[in-house]
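Summary of Year 1 activities. Much of the first year was spent building the evaluation harness for sequence design. The harness presents a backbone, in tokenized form, and records the residue chosen at every position. We chose the following record to illustrate the format because it has been used consistently in internal testing since the harness was completed.
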């Protein structure tokens, strides 16, 4: 009940509406309509600035406001989407991870462990045994933690209850996947639905097409697959109908994009990227359920179009033994087609009738535009120039082998021929002799592949093919496995496996293979010893090797001098010259009284390594110290005789000496009188001549005045390189340089003022 109004507070009631005439009412309506149709610049709409209000709002309030606006006006989506900046891959992956975690946390577990992601295999065919560093089969990849039967995971829970719990989060996860999909999609827009929801995706895809790398697309699709496979089976059953059809379309579009980029535009991808794609697709193809079925089709499509990027098993294509030479970093289809046509012609030459011959294709005629010429022109890359030239020369024939020994000998003939057959040709010839392959032929090809620094997939293929042929390896095969592991950076793993296989005493050949990582073309000088390449032998590894030094005496183990040479060079590379000298003298003192000439020459090579390290010093005092060391080493055994290389290295210590011309000439005369004329060769003569020319040049410059240089300026003009270096060899080029310097000295002497003479003042 309303109380009575007080005098201070009068009662307020609703005002009575005044009755107006119809004409006045229509006039008010027209006035209202005219106000609504006014221009945006009218004063009624300028009284509130929406931008000022939006700028003052906190960031968390903008999203609900924008969502409400889009709900009220759905047509604004087409205007807002093009204005949104393209998200980065990291942002998209973070959103997917958060959404997947929410979906996983929403799953009602009961007496069951949390799910673990699926472990992917290594390389295609991961269901088979993959090979480790020594060609031994490794354990197959682990499977998913979930069983295919949902009742095993959620015992006592109804599926309808679980589905109702995760339905909202499933929708959110699918929405997150589809929202970022257009930014990383290669699928054509015509393949999508024509509905209003898909039209926005098509618009975004057309706006951002070409702004992403194929590897980004792979990472995004792989992230979705990882999150999908990490979910429980019941969640996968709910996600499958909504995600798998679109994922299948996107994966196939990605493969088609790679096909266009690689085979159509000669695109190139690095080895690490291709390896990642290979392992990922193989792991997804080995998964269970509908996802595995879809990814197996994608994997097969990848193999058929761009599978030659990786080293496939020989059972997939005939020329798989040829494909690995291109490597994952070389992806030119024209080179592949040219070599495949060459392989097919070779394969046809091996008929079952008559004597089979191994033919090279004939050389195409010059200035011709036939198919053979076009195939030859395709080999424009320098890494395949030798193969193209050998394939373009006239026919050479090698009879087909009829025994294991003849197969090995034919491989040696191809390898040692004047045209130097390429490794793919040797592999093709080896593959055509099923049943005749032996451990010696496999060891030859593996050693050649390691020596030529080919991709590791080819070497792994050879080890796997050797196991498939049921050919047991020997000690040489074990050496090659160690060498391959050391060259690829798996030194520690190789050491553990070899020590486990030989716990008592490691064989000397295997022990020496661990020094290959420190192989150097020359002995580094000490100032660079601390900056050795990363693949070299470290101090810790060297200590490990020396602590496990095999027992070998010079008069008991054949080839022990090679071990001594390797150890000495390794010590010198680690800047330990005194240890290297002590080890060399220990080895030389243990030699028998008589050794043959080849053995003595190899011992002198060890001495040369020690003298080469001394050649870092550039003074007369250092020369005499190096000569004393050389004489002391040569006196250890009566069969030691220095070579021309020994004298050449010894004279290298005189490069900074003032009297190097005179001292080098006297040293050459003494060596020839004591050891014979074999200590002099072209290199020694060039070094002595260069020292003499430099000495005379300094004497002439000391005697001549400053004006003499300007008068002789036209005589010091450099001869063009095409005249100085006619490509007759490194030694002749050095001789040409020396002759030019000697000519300059002669001209200076001829133009020197007469009568004054040269006075040499010794300090």
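For this record, the design step produced the sequence shown next.
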């Amino acid at each position: 009940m309303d109380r009575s109004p007080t005098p201070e507070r009068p009662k307020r009631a609703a005002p009575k509406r005044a009755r107006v005439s119809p004409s006045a009412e229509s006039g008010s309506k027209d006035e209202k309509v005219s106000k609504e149709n006014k221009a945006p610049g009218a004063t009624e709409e300028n009284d509130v600035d929406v931008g000022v209000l939006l700028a003052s709002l906190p960031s968390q309030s903008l999203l609900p406001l924008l969502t409400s606006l889009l709900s009220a006006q759905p047509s604004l989506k087409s205007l807002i989407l093009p204005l949104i900046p393209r998200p980065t891959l990291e942002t998209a992956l973070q959103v997917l991870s958060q959404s997947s975690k929410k979906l996983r946390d929403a799953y009602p577990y009961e007496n069951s462990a949390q799910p673990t992601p699926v472990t992917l295999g290594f390389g295609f065919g991961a269901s088979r045994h993959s090979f480790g560093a020594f060609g031994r089969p490794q354990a197959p990849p682990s499977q998913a933690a979930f069983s295919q039967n949902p009742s095993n995971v959620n015992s006592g829970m109804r599926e309808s209850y679980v589905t109702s719990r995760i339905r909202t989060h499933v929708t959110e996860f699918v929405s997150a996947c589809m929202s970022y999909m257009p930014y990383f999609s290669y699928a054509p827009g015509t393949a999508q639905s024509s509905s209003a929801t898909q039209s926005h995706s098509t618009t975004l895809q057309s706006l951002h097409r070409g702004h992403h790398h194929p590897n980004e697309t792979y990472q995004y699709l792989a992230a979705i697959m990882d999150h999908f496979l990490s979910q429980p089976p019941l969640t996968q059953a709910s996600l499958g109908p909504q995600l798998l059809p679109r994922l299948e379309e996107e994966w196939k579009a990605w493969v088609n994009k790679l096909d266009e980029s690689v085979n159509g535009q000669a695109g190139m991808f690095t080895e690490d990227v291709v390896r990642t794609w290979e392992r990922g697709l193989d792991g997804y193809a080995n998964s269970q359920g509908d996802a595995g079925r879809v990814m197996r089709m994608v994997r097969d499509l990848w193999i058929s179009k761009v599978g030659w990027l990786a080293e496939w098993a020989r059972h997939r294509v005939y020329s798989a033994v040829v494909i690995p030479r291109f490597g994952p970093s070389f992806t030119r289809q024209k080179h592949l087609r040219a070599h495949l046509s060459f392989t097919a012609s070779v394969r046809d030459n091996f008929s079952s009738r008559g004597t089979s011959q191994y033919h090279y294709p004939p050389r195409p005629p010059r200035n011709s535009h036939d198919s053979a010429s076009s195939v030859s022109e395709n080999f424009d890359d320098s890494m395949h120039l030798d193969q193209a030239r050998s394939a373009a020369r006239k026919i050479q024939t090698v009879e087909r082998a009829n025994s294991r020994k003849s197969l090995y000998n034919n491989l040696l003939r191809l390898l040692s021929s004047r045209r130097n057959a390429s490794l793919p040709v040797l592999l093709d010839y080896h593959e055509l002799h099923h049943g005749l392959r032996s451990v010696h032929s496999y060891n030859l090809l593996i050693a050649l592949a390691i020596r030529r620094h080919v991709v590791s997939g080819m070497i792994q293929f050879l080890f796997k093919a050797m196991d498939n042929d049921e050919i047991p390896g020997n000690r040489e095969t074990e050496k090659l496995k160690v060498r391959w592991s050391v060259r690829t950076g798996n030194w520690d793993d190789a050491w553990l496996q070899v020590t486990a296989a030989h716990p008592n005493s490691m064989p000397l050949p295997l022990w020496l293979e661990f020094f290959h990582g420190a192989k150097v073309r020359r002995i580094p000088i000490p100032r660079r010893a601390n900056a050795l390449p990363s693949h070299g032998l470290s101090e810790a590894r060297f200590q490990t090797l020396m602590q496990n030094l095999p027992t070998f005496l010079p008069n008991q183990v054949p080839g022990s001098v090679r071990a001594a040479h390797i150890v000495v060079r390794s010590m010198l590379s680690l800047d330990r010259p005194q240890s290297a000298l002590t080890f060399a003298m220990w080895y030389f003192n243990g030699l028998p009284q008589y050794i043959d000439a080849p053995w003595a020459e190899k011992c002198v090579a060890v001495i040369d390594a020690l003298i080469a390290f001394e050649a870092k010093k550039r003074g007369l005092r250092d020369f005499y110290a190096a000569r004393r060391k050389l004489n002391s080493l040569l006196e250890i055994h009566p069969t030691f005789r220095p070579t021309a290389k020994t004298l050449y290295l010894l004279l290298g210590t005189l490069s900074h000496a003032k009297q190097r011309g005179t001292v080098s000439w006297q040293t050459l005369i003494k060596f020839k009188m004591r050891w014979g004329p074999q200590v002099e060769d072209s290199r020694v003569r060039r070094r002595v001549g260069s020292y003499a020319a430099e000495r005379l040049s300094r004497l002439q410059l000391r005697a001549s005045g400053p004006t003499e240089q300007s008068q002789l300026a036209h005589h010091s003009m450099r001869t063009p390189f095409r005249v100085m270096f006619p490509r007759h060899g490194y030694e002749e080029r050095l001789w040409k340089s020396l002759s030019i310097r000697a000519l300059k000295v002669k001209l200076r002497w001829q133009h020197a003022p007469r009568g004054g003479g040269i006075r040499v003042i010794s300090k």
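DSSP finds 33 helices and two strands in the chain. Quantitative recovery figures across the full test set are reported in Table 2.
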